[in-house]
Amino acid sequence: MTAVVDAPPNRLPVERSARAFVGQSAVLAWRQISVMVRDRGTFLQLVLVPLLTLAMFKVVLGDAIGSATGQDSTYGTVPLVILVSAMFGSVAAGIRLNQERGTGLLARLYVLPINRAADLTSRLLSEIFRIIVVTALLIAVGSTIGFDITGGVVAVAGIFGVSLMFGVAYAMLVLALAVSARPSAPLVPLLSLVSSVLMFFNSGFSPVEAYPGWLQPIVENQPMSPAIEVMRALAAGGPIAENLIKVVVWTVLIVAACVYPALHGYRKAATSR
Fold this sequence. Notes:
The structure is a single chain. The protein is mainly α. It has 10 helices and no strands. The longest helix has 31 residues.
């Protein structure tokens, strides 16, 4: 005699449901973090290089910047390196996405019964995780060379918030470019050029007044300078409101401009042959 056993109810969430989006984004974010950590060369580059860069700035440029500004150079270089690490880490993630498109992994993920937005969201979540970890390390190391945060816990939270706003906006820009570009496109030179221009023309190395007059408005208002000044003010004290408004405006503009190209480009990249 054979017993008839009812099949268990299907407990998988509906593909387009919020439950599926949240759960599958978390699983795929963990995959992204695992891939990043297991790639030891890239992982060391993302974590170790910013720390070495910070130490190099302190040793090589510390006295020169300090004598020119009258302030410990770490109040400019720590925020600068936090933002630079966010940018170059996003470039590495964009290159990985572009490579996964070339190998067909995006296409395989796209035909699975998972929420369509989960994979792209997971890549942003892994970027947020990386930015938080690297920012914490840079603040910790910076505190040993003079980056004393006088504003307490609120100031520390503010520095993390600014680094996340800048990092997420830049990550959205890189994702939009990575899914829109061909697998063989020269993404590295293009993104490295943009990152380098932003890195050298900001208020982290030297005050805005030290640049030529015609260049000062550009340096003062490019996305990095307001973020650096907000973090400097949170750490050492000073006015915040004007530069914080600039950071929020830049973040909203970049994210708003990149959301549709990122979604459209991802769908096109995943379905193209």
